[in-house]
């Protein structure tokens, strides 16, 4: 009976969350409906941008609710006024940044991630403004609520999936897309509502909290032990390694190689998360950590920010380096606040929100600044080599390898961030991965060597850390399709800028439903055919293409079709893959395009 009472109580709390957060609930419901429609549509998803807008809308709505509860509680007219303001905000954001996009590209992802981060931090911070409730208390409650809702959602997902699988196997065969519908419903609607149901209705100055809310804001003993005796020592050891690296390389290598740059953002975020979580922990290790970590972070952040600023002279400013510098500034100021000021829990989140908002407002946002900086940077390099005259590119095969690298890196950045359309000296429909680059600049995109910054010597021009292969453009070929049941054109992406770990394309043969599954992440590179029970009919593991199949050379290798055709067969049928182009790198990333022919036995 106790189980049923607890279940009924939790369901009631979720229903109360819907009443408490009506606009967020509506946004998450629309998000789920759009996702389900996309799942059941033929071909790629069709509402990615709208789904993103609804996600931002749901988060903005519960942040608006926090403003109402902290400053205007009881004033329903103000509450609905805030909701109207949230709706107008989302419409404005959609109109300015999303409406012309057909997919979530790099600029969209960067801007939206920064906005979501600012809104979430604001939701945590607002209840503590001019209140006895501390920011660390609100922060701890949010963290607990997130992981509890995640755990419940995973358990619920596993349970219902098990039931549906048993039903599909034993009673009636279900469409495989039902499983995806369930996942979207649980993690797109149930999980956020369950999370919101966990967040207390904070009383101003800490008075009148219910027993449920008091339990929600307590720091669990498990969390105290985890932070004090596991996470803090690990972070301290990690900080020591960073300091040793910096001190031992201050003579020059640190300023050139700059290995810390990609680590700084995550280091700052994790460090401050632990700081806020440990504020209410009274263990000796927590006290020592809270006093020493801000000072260690101050040293690391100052040196790394200076190094990143110097790096701009070498390869220009990008949105990634913009955020590294921004987080460096945030870490420096926040470390000073933590070390010398009393109201640190007021200023630190306010600073984070301010910098995040600045990073998405044109013309000083990360994307605009990065694009303009790279355009100016590559134009300076081109003019230095007399390759840009009267806004026209003049081919030059004899420029230095270092300048080739700068041009190639900048053009690749502009291409990956949709910035080529801003450059009027590039040809229309410019594609960096084909002959457009060489036809424009006179040398191949990958036909340069890297420079060893430690001694300014070029590496061996016959070696490279990548293999680029493509079908021979000068060769005419034919493909027999007599026994082919289905043809696909597949795009593979697992790179720093774009990562699509899984693609599922439904198709049917003789009224039987199948799915072409394309896996391309760090662990898997495969093309599979799944039947209507989501079982593998044919598995074609393509990892061999990433290893020693192609030689690493600093040039594009144009190969005949026979060298780029691969087949996998079993008793169920066959998959034939013709590689149109493929780029594989020593760090494990890769991208490319392939023709896929599927034949199934009757």
Automatic annotation (TrEMBL):
Alphabetic keyword roster: Membrane, Transmembrane, Transmembrane helix
InterPro entries membership: DUF4153
Pfam families to which the protein is assigned, alphabetical: DUF4153
Name used for this protein in its record: DUF4153 domain-containing protein
Lineage, opening ranks: Bacteria, Bacillati, Bacillota, Bacilli, Lactobacillales
Record-annotated membrane-spanning stretches: 21-39, 51-68, 80-97, 109-126, 147-172, 178-201, 222-247, 259-277, 297-316, 322-341, 346-364
């Amino acid at each position: 009976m106790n189980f049923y009472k607890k279940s009924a109580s939790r369901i009631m709390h979720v229903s109360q969350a819907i009443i408490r957060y009506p606009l967020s609930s509506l946004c998450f419901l629309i998000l789920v409906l759009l996702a389900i429609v996309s799942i059941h549509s033929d071909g790629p998803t069709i509402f990615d941008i709208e789904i993103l807008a609804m996600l931002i809308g749901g988060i903005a709505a519960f942040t608006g609710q926090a403003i109402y509860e902290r400053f205007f509680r009881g004033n329903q007219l103000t509450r609905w006024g805030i909701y109207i303001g949230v709706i107008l905000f989302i419409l404005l954001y959609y109109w300015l940044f999303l409406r012309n996009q057909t997919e979530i590209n790099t600029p969209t992802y960067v801007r939206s991630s920064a906005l979501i981060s600012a809104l979430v931090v604001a939701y945590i911070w607002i209840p503590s403004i001019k209140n006895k409730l501390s920011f660390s208390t609100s922060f701890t409650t949010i963290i607990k609520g997130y992981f509890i809702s995640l755990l419940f959602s995973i358990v619920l997902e596993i349970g219902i999936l098990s039931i549906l699988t048993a039903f599909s196997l034993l009673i009636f065969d279900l469409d495989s897309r039902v499983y995806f519908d369930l996942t979207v419903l649980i993690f797109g609607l149930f999980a956020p509502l369950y999370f919101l149901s966990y967040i207390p209705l904070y009383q101003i100055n800490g008075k009148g909290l219910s027993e449920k809310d008091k339990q929600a804001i307590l720091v669990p003993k498990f969390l105290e032990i985890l932070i004090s005796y596991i996470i803090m020592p690990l972070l301290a050891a990690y900080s020591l390694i960073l300091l040793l690296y910096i001190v031992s390389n201050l003579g020059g290598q640190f300023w050139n190689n700059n290995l810390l740059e990609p680590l700084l953002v995550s280091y700052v975020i994790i460090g401050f998360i632990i700081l806020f979580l440990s504020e209410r922990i009274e263990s000796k290790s927590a006290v020592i950590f809270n006093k020493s970590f801000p000072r260690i972070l101050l040293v690391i952040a100052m040196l790394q920010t200076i190094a990143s600023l110097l790096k701009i002279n070498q390869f220009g400013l990008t949105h990634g380096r913009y955020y590294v510098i921004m987080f460096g500034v945030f870490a420096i100021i926040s470390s000073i606040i933590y070390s010398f000021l009393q109201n640190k829990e007021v200023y630190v989140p306010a600073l984070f929100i301010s910098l995040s908002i600045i990073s998405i407002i044109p013309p000083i946002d990360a994307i605009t600044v990065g694009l303009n900086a790279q355009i100016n940077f590559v134009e300076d390099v081109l003019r230095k080599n007399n390759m840009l005259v009267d806004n026209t590119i003049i081919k030059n095969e004899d420029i230095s390898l270092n300048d080739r690298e700068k041009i190639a890196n900048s053009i690749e950045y502009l291409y990956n961030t949709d910035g080529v359309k801003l450059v009027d000296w590039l040809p229309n429909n410019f594609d960096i991965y084909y002959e457009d680059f060489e036809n424009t600049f006179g040398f191949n995109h990958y036909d340069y060597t890297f420079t060893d910054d430690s001694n300014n010597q070029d590496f061996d021009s016959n070696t490279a850390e990548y293999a680029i292969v493509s079908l021979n453009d000068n060769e005419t070929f034919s493909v027999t399709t007599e026994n082919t049941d289905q043809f696909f054109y597949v795009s593979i992406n697992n790179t720093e800028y774009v990562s699509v770990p899984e693609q599922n394309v439904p198709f049917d043969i003789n009224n039987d439903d199948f799915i072409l599954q394309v896996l391309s992440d760090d662990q898997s590179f495969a093309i599979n055919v799944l039947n209507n029970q989501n079982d593998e009919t044919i598995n074609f593991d393509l990892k061999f293409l990433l290893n020693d199949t192609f030689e690493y050379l600093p040039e594009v290798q144009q190969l005949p079709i026979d060298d780029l055709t691969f087949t996998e067969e079993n008793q169920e049928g066959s998959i034939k893959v013709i590689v149109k182009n493929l780029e594989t790198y020593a760090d494990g990333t890769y991208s490319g395009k392939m023709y896929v022919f599927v034949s199934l036995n009757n």
